[in-house]
């Protein structure tokens, strides 16, 4: 028998102008809210058109863009799809690396496997120990203590580790967690401003839904609340959502995150060795 969510989604899609497969080739989830999305996108098209005109004037046909306050402001308001490949490559630094090392990728393909390079590419997030991933989840926990203490107290009361509720946020960078348009807007800022954007998004989701999360009374309930806060109009309306991530969490400096990373990483290592760092 077909699940109720799937039947409802099919019925909504038949009466909607929104296709079941999005413009990037991905099939929408079975619980996709076609009505909310159609209402949102009819207004968002105006924003996209306005941003496309501004970006075309900014780039003026050039294949380069320099970092500046103006570019940062433009990126926070969204990069049009037609300019994303260029802008992502430039602002992330990938374009410069590629130009400084012409033909390097092809040489890797043609040569023998380089185990050292493979380990470098894995990074701490994707190594078997996942030390970097665990560290950043603990950093989020510390930031929640500072900025949303009631939620931190709830998590501690029920003995819930952050890794149980936010692992996919970090390891997938919100892909298959938030709507695709919202994810692309997050990545626009991520490539320009770095990993603090991931913490801004996470803190915004938690702070915006603080009262809802605090209704939870047990472990399964808390896990369910964290799944639900990644759905609905708040995350679908990506333009408003992106404005929120730069106001809702308040000040969040990269220096603060790096300092917390040092402490949390030391704690991870100490726990392996049977110690703990305060």
From TrEMBL:
<dbReference type="InterPro" id="IPR000195">
    <property type="entry name" value="Rab-GAP-TBC_dom"/>
</dbReference>
<protein>
    <submittedName>
        <fullName>Growth hormone regulated TBC protein 1</fullName>
    </submittedName>
</protein>
<comment type="function">
    <text>May act as a GTPase-activating protein for Rab family protein(s).</text>
</comment>
<dbReference type="InterPro" id="IPR035969">
    <property type="entry name" value="Rab-GAP_TBC_sf"/>
</dbReference>
<dbReference type="GO" id="GO:0005096">
    <property type="term" value="F:GTPase activator activity"/>
</dbReference>
<dbReference type="Pfam" id="PF00566">
    <property type="entry name" value="RabGAP-TBC"/>
</dbReference>
<feature type="domain" description="Rab-GAP TBC">
    <location>
        <begin position="1"/>
        <end position="194"/>
    </location>
</feature>
<keyword id="KW-0343">GTPase activation</keyword>
<dbReference type="InterPro" id="IPR050302">
    <property type="entry name" value="Rab_GAP_TBC_domain"/>
</dbReference>
């Amino acid at each position: 028998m077909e699940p109720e969510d799937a039947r409802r989604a099919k019925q909504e899609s038949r009466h909607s102008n929104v296709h079941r497969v999005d413009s990037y080739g991905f099939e929408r989830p079975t619980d996709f809210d076609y009505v909310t999305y159609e209402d949102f996108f009819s207004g968002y098209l105006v924003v996209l058109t306005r941003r496309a005109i501004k970006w075309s004037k900014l780039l003026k046909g050039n294949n380069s863009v320099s970092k500046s306050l103006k570019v940062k402001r433009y990126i926070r308001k969204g990069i049009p799809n037609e300019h994303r490949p260029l802008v992502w490559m430039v602002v992330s630094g990938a374009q410069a690396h590629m130009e400084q090392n012409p033909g390097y990728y092809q040489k890797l393909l043609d040569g023998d496997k380089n185990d050292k390079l493979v380990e470098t590419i894995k990074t701490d997030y994707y190594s078997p120990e996942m030390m970097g991933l665990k560290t950043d989840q603990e950093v989020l926990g510390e930031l929640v203590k500072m900025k949303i203490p009631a939620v931190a107290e709830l998590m501690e009361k029920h003995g819930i580790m952050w890794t149980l509720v936010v692992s996919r946020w970090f390891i997938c960078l919100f892909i298959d967690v938030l709507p695709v348009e919202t994810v692309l807007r997050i990545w626009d800022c991520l490539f320009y401003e770095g990993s603090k954007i991931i913490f801004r998004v996470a803190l915004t989701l938690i702070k915006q839904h603080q009262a809802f999360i605090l209704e939870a009374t047990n472990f399964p309930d808390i896990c369910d609340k964290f799944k639900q806060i990644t759905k609905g109009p708040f995350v679908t309306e990506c333009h408003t959502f992106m404005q929120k991530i730069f106001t809702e969490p308040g000040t969040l400096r990269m220096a603060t995150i790096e300092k917390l990373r040092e402490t949390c990483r030391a704690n991870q290592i100490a726990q392996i060795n049977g110690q703990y760092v305060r």
